[in-house]
Amino acid sequence: MVAVHSQSGLQGYNMVCVLKEDGKLNLLKGFIDVEGMCPSLAQVGLKAQDFDNVPLLVVKGDYRPIPDLSKPCFDEVNARRMAGLGSANATYIALDDPSFLGKFNGVTHMMMDGTDNLDVMDQILNWANQNVDNPPSKGQCNSPPPPAS
Q: Which end of the chain has fewer CB atoms within 10 angstroms, the N or the C?
């Protein structure tokens, strides 16, 4: 699992590209982008199908004065899901969505520092528990995958 925030979004998507080029994309169990940056998958050397088996979560907070800079990449992946292509979940959570009934009003770009940071993290963990094949175990370490031959 990899989680990125803000400007590290580009490095995270670049890491996905490196894993793909090395034939190790199967090691990535999920990708969480919290208000990261990804203007287009092509700009980071990826295609939407690279996420066919990698669950993708993009989280956007409230009070964002600029457009969500990861939405274009999410939209590319989600378009494949809407076309019935790829098996991994792709979810976009906008914390200012009316479905949350104002629960996350005021959550800023630095949501991990806010007073409701644990509630935000619960949203992320709930998504991971539902969509990642190998979520973290409770109370013990998981064995790493065997080395590639």
A: C
Q: What is the pTM of this model?
A: 0.84
Query: Any idea what the CATH number is for the domain that residue 52 is in?
Result: 3.40.50.1820
Question: Nearest Cα to 9, choosing from 35, 45, 47?
Answer: 35
The pLDDT tens digits of the residues spanning 67-80 come to 677 888 999 999 99
Q: Beta-carbon neighbour count of residue 4 at 10 Å?
A: 21
Give the total number of structural domains in the chain: 1
What the block records as the tokens of 74 is 């999410």
Inside any domain, residue 77: yes
